[in-house]
Amino acid sequence: MTKPIILLGGGGHAKVLIELLQCLDYPLLGLLDPHYAIGESLLGATILGDDSVLAAYDANVIELVNGIGSLPHDSGLRRKLFNAFSAKGYTFKTLRHPTAIISPSATLMAGVQVMAGVIIQASATIAENSLINSGAIIEHDCRIGRHVHIAPGAVLSGTVTVGNAVHIGTGAIIIQGITIGEGSIIGAGSVVTHDVAPQQIVYPARSPYQAINRDQP
Ligand code: JB3
User: Is 70's C-beta closer than 6 angstroms to any atom of ligand 1?
Assistant: First the structure.
């Protein structure tokens, strides 16, 4: 049976998760976000307060959902909250959107979130607290580390290995067999054809954007 859920965060990613939890008919007690007043509502979910409120809830009785998303250069709040509350004995629920296609031989670890329209193929492994965002494709035998964000529409071909805390931007393409080192950022729209060392930033290879007036001869 699904335990009552408390959602961390009330921003853009949390809104998408509230609707996912409602769609799955999971019992959402409310959410924690210091930005709101207690008792306010967000898409039908009640604000319970800031993270200090969690101390009132037994870690064996509830489950958490990490509603903090991630940006390439953010503070790592998603990772910090996962680590801090896991250390206190709380568990993070693994979520699968009903429209996602997930191979029965794929492995999703604690707190992994698979959003709408994702495809995850045979023998892929996704480690703790990673977020596979809308419409991403994770092909067979990929190994995705912890605290990774695969942004909407990114495509990882077969046997790609992604280190911990990597950000793969919207629409990026990673060809088969590539390894991306821990903490690296792959910019939106990049096409990655060589291994990427840890802590690198990869920008898409394209010329500067130039607008041409359609009326010019
Ligand atoms: O790219 C997509 C589809 N989604 C992005 C997602 C992956 O990452 C989205 O566009 C954003 O770039 C980002 O979503 P996120 O993290 O929801 O960002 P934002 O809308 O800025 O909301 C962050 C929320 O976290 C805010 O409401 C903050 O008040 C709240 N917050 C800040 N510090 C906190 C804390 N909440 C809790 N519980 N604890 C904190 O310490």
Answer: yes
Which regions of the chain are under pLDDT 70? 205-212, 216-217
Fold designation for 5-87: Rossmann fold (3.40.50)
Q: What CATH number was assigned to the domain covering residues 95-205?
A: 2.160.10.10
Whether ligand 1 lies within 6 angstroms of the CB of 14 is answered as yes
Atom of ligand 1 at shortest distance to CA of 67? 17
| Amino acid making up residue 147 | H
User: Residues spanned by CATH 2.160.10.10 within the chain?
Assistant: 95-205
Whether residue 144 contacts residue 150, with contact meaning beta carbons closer than 8 Å, is answered with yes
Spot the catalytic one: 35, 73, 140, 194: 140
**Tally of CA atoms within 13 A in the half-sphere of 141 that contains its CB:** 9
Q: Which tens digit of pLDDT belongs to each residue from 51-80?
A: 999 999 999 999 999 999 988 777 899 999
